[in-house]
Specification:
The protein is mostly helical and about 100 residues long. The protein is built from five helices and two strands; from the N terminus they run H-H-E-E-H-H-H. It has a two-stranded antiparallel ribbon. Protoporphyrin IX containing FE binds near residues 46 and 56.
């Protein structure tokens, strides 16, 4: 009987110890999950010039049709013209 009590005490002590360790070893401010789509670049080429269209992917009226790391010249001119490239695409242009 005494042995059983001792064993139960050890088991309870272990549970308390493990729970306590898990609680105190957890970071107080766990890092927020970051969406890699929001931070990574998405570089496309139009007429030999590179643009990082990552910010455009969410706002583009034509949807997220971008295929990163490809030449999208034909796709772009299938829908838009040089004037849109000259005006609205300049802010995405890479140096
Ligand atoms: C490399 C490909 C493309 C790029 C860089 C591009 C870029 C842009 C930009 C800068 C705008 C103006 C800002 C905005 O409204 O978000 C725009 C507008 C728009 N895009 Fe695209 N676009 C591309 C392909 C396409 C395609 C394939 C479609 C249709 C399937 C499309 C449909 C539209 C529409 C409907 C608008 C709004 C109306 C307009 O300004 O013509 N785009 N795009």
């Amino acid at each position: 009987m005494k042995t059983i009590r001792i064993l139960i005490s050890i088991a309870v002590a272990n549970i308390v110890l493990v729970t306590g360790l898990a609680y105190f070893s957890a970071p107080a401010n766990p890092p927020k999950s970051t969406d890699s789509q929001n931070t990574a670049q998405c570089i496309i080429t139009i007429s030999g010039i590179k643009y990082d269209v990552q910010p455009l992917r969410k706002s583009h009226s034509g949807g997220d049709i971008f295929v990163c790391d490809t030449d999208m010249t034909n796709i772009f001119f299938g829908q838009h013209d040089q004037s849109l490239l000259n005006r609205k695409m300049q802010k995405y242009r890479l140096p």
